[in-house]
Design goal:
By secondary structure, the chain is mostly helical. It has 18 helices and two strands. Among the domains are: 84 residues, Rna Polymerase Sigma Factor, Chain: A (Orthogonal Bundle); 119 residues, no CATH class; 77 residues, Serine Threonine Protein Phosphatase 5, Tetratricopeptide repeat (Alpha Horseshoe). The longest helix is centred in the N-terminal third of the chain and has 27 residues. The radius of gyration is 24 Å and the shape is globular.
Length: 448
């Protein structure tokens, strides 16, 4: 099975890429709708994970959470927007789950001869005292959202299905954005998610937190989910803003919890280092007007040096003790960029060597695209173009905006402006993020 090719952020050189009502709440229709939309974007993962602890069934939990958001539109319009929307939504969804489970339990008790024995994976309805700790005192995974990610990354599902389903259900990433990350049409991704949910139902896979011995087998899928969550926030596939800070911070938080849970796993250290290094440059990725700034344009004095130092220690630990994995190698590449005094002084030979090793460990067309940029920096723009020419035949990169954007940049450096303009127009037609579109438009105008 081929690993989805895009679990790596494009380099900047090609990324042209409880429920107490607040006294001052204004319950206007627009205000309520905006509050519900914001709560959906920020809190869906938390509310779903907390509800699943009670429901013990992911489909039931999702149904109850959707009901809670629908209820919010009416209740908040009448009573005002709560000061803590997440707590209100969680309480509403969990109570709904308990009610449904109790109703099912009562039905089974009253109609024992008409109902088959319980095989759906759902458990008896918990009492109110069970809501705070339905699993008991000891739990393998200490965070609701991370627990649900491990649960969804079930080995009965194909890897792509695990990752896509978890991003959609647990992380609240839109189907379109997931499809963009996997380089497939949105309809294809929607079908994958639907098939994964049907397989869970058909196989009667219950909501069950894996035991400690099961975690290592699911770790790579979990790391992939968190990394894709981060990259979706680091460079949003669509929308008016380059960055979705809520997704970035959530991914870093989950990785820190994961490292505390599995401190000896080198790839966890590698992923945390990679995310920290990307986040350390957050203040310089756009200018005051929101214009995208490439790596060579960024003011390195504004980078978070404390974060870079923390990440450096994590990288060292991640590459020791055996051949490094794909996250450790990506972190090592990011560390070379972070530690270079300037763009011109970047050790591109080392970067290229690390990409060679990464491509061996993780043969992905997007890794090859990133490597081609490094080739251009070491051997010249024409050598990079030759690498890109080979990649242009890979069907997995069809529609991937960073391929024509990289080609346009190298053609521009060679002074082949007509060809560069054509490539920029191709990239512009594929880009859906406003900051990237503005950048590409400016480059195109400069050539004209």
């Amino acid at each position: 099975m081929t690993t989805p090719p895009d679990h790596i952020a494009p380099p900047d050189s090609v990324a042209a890429l409880d429920s107490v009502v607040a006294p001052d709440s204004v319950a206007t229709p627009d205000g309520v709708a905006a509050a519900v939309a914001d709560a959906h974007r920020r809190e869906w993962a938390f509310v779903l994970a907390a509800t699943a602890r009670v429901a013990r069934d992911i489909d039931l939990a999702e149904e109850c959470v959707q009901d809670s958001y629908a209820s919010a539109l009416q209740t908040w319009a009448r009573d005002g927007v709560p000061s803590n929307p997440a707590a209100w939504l969680t309480t509403t969804a969990r109570r709904r789950a308990i009610d449904l489970l109790r109703r099912e339990q009562t039905l089974r008790a009253k109609l024992p001869l008409l109902v088959e024995p319980e095989t759906s994976g759902r458990v008896a309805a918990p009492g109110l005292s069970d809501v705070d700790d339905p699993y008991g005192a000891e739990e393998t995974v200490p965070d609701d959202r991370l627990r649900l990610i491990f649960t969804c990354c079930h080995p009965a599902l194909a890897r792509e299905a695990q990752v896509a389903l978890t991003l959609r259900l647990v992380c609240g990433v839109s189907t379109g954005d997931i499809a963009a990350s996997f380089l497939v049409p949105e309809t294809t991704m929607a079908a994958r998610v639907t098939r994964a949910k049907k397989k869970i139902a058909a196989a009667r896979i219950p909501y069950r937190v894996p035991g400690a011995a099961e975690l290592p087998d699911r770790l790579d899928a979990v790391l992939t989910v968190i990394h894709l969550l981060y990259t979706t926030g680091h460079t949003a596939p669509t929308g008016p803003h380059l960055v979705r800070l809520d997704l970035v911070e959530r991914a870093i938080h989950l990785t820190r919890i994961l490292l505390a849970l599995m401190p000896d796993e080198r790839e966890v250290r590698g992923l945390l280092a990679l995310l920290i290094l990307g986040h350390a440059r957050r203040a310089t990725r756009t200018d005051a007007t929101g214009r995208l700034l490439l790596l060579e344009e960024q003011d390195r004095s504004l980078w978070d040096r404390a974060a870079i130092a923390e990440a450096h220690d994590l990288v060292v630990a991640a590459v020791r003790g055996g051949p490094p994995g794909r996250f450790a190698l990506q972190a090592a590449i990011a560390a070379v960029h972070a530690q270079a005094p300037s763009y011109e002084e970047t050790d591109w030979v080392e970067v290229l060597g690390l990409y060679d090793e990464l491509l061996r460990v993780w043969p992905s067309p997007v890794v090859a695209l990133n490597r081609a940029v490094a080739v251009a920096m070491v051997r010249g723009p024409q050598a990079g173009l030759d690498e890109l020419a080979e990649l242009s035949t890979d069907h997995r990169l069809a529609g991937y905006r960073y391929l024509p954007a990289a080609r346009a940049d190298l053609l521009r450096r060679l002074g082949r402006n007509d060809e560069a303009s054509s490539a920029y127009r191709e990239a512009l037609a594929l880009a859906e993020n406003d900051a990237e579109r503005a950048f590409l438009t400016t480059r195109l105008e400069d050539l004209s």
